[in-house]
Design a protein that fits this description.
Distance between the termini: 36 Å
Order of helices and strands: HHHHHHHH
CATH superfamily: Uncharacterized conserved protein DUF2267
Number of strands: 0
Strand content: under 5%
CATH class: Mainly Alpha
CATH architecture: Orthogonal Bundle
Number of helices: 8
Length: about 140
């Protein structure tokens, strides 16, 4: 640890989230896979949400996770007009890149479950309200 309490707490919280995502992904999931899944799904969500809702979700993310979420964001190009489950999964796959052994659907389910555990119910309702039915069903599984 750095010895600087705010940084140490932020790092600890990010590790907790990675651990939770890895657990939800299943036995054998590594931190690297959990990181790739979390980053890809958060970027897909961020890009599908309106800029206002994306910022409201970000406000509830831990500091380091929030940095991952905002990395490379261009709010002028959002929200993307993705309406179907398969298109959303394709976007997650694009953000996953060449990450070994991480499939988009389990990644979405794992990260969505962690978000439901750590983000307020009201905020998750707002996020889900902006999603088309097919994507809501995917995220709720």
């Amino acid at each position: 640890m750095s010895g600087f309490e705010p940084f140490d707490k932020a790092l600890h919280k990010a590790h907790e989230w990675l651990h939770d995502v890895a657990q939800k992904m299943g036995e054998g999931a590594t931190r690297q896979q959990a990181y790739a899944a979390m980053r890809a799904v958060l970027h897909a969500l961020r890009d599908r949400l309106s800029p206002n809702e994306a910022a409201q979700l970000a406000a509830q993310l831990p500091l380091l996770v929030r940095g991952i979420y905002y990395e490379g964001w261009n709010p002028a190009k959002t929200p993307l007009k993705i309406r179907h489950r398969d298109d959303f999964l394709a976007l997650v796959r694009e953000y996953l890149g060449k990450t070994d052994n991480v499939e988009p659907e389990p990644a979405v389910k794992a990260v969505s479950a962690v978000l439901r555990e750590h983000v307020s119910a009201g905020e998750m309702e707002d996020v889900m309200a902006e999603m088309p039915a097919e994507i809501r069903e995917l995220m709720a599984a």
